[in-house]
Design brief:
By secondary structure, the protein is mainly beta. The protein is built from no helices and nine strands. The chain is globular. The protein starts with a strand and ends in a 21-residue tail after the last strand.
Length: 135
């Protein structure tokens, strides 16, 4: 089943095809770029002649409403809404180039984390708590 991504602010779908399309900005450069939709796959699709240097911080914006996607959980994370079927979740991802850290978050807390740098921000995301009745 495919993942569908949307802006957490305006709810516009940002992956009308196989890529998650966002507006990226750093200093005097603003580009439209694509990310692979599978959490944990760090493939980035850039316009010809554009590069992203490891360690650079980028701002990411919704391409529809142009609002900044920076997450409240940490200044180095951005947020999108993601769903498969009817289950909606939040996905957080690092805005630092080369930092592989992605988090799938349910309303109850962190569901799953991905990437070799996932430990960098896990402590800033509430943990999923199993209800006492289910233990």
């Amino acid at each position: 089943m495919a993942w569908t991504y949307s802006c957490p602010i305006c709810d516009s779908v940002v992956n009308p095809d196989e890529t998650v399309t966002l507006l990226g900005s750093r200093q005097d450069v603003t580009i439209l770029l694509g990310f692979h939709p599978q959490p944990g796959n760090y493939t980035v699709y850039l316009p010809p002649g554009c590069d992203m240097r490891k360690g650079d911080n980028w701002e990411f914006y919704c391409p529809v409403c142009r609002q900044n996607l920076r997450a409240k959980e940490h200044t180095n994370l951005c947020a999108l809404t993601v769903w498969q079927g009817s289950a909606r979740r939040k996905i957080l991802f690092s805005r630092v180039v080369g930092e592989r850290a992605t988090y799938l978050v349910r309303e109850q807390g962190l569901e799953e984390s991905y990437g070799k740098h996932k430990g960098n921000y896990e402590n800033t995301i509430p943990r999923f708590k199993i209800p006492e009745a289910l233990k």
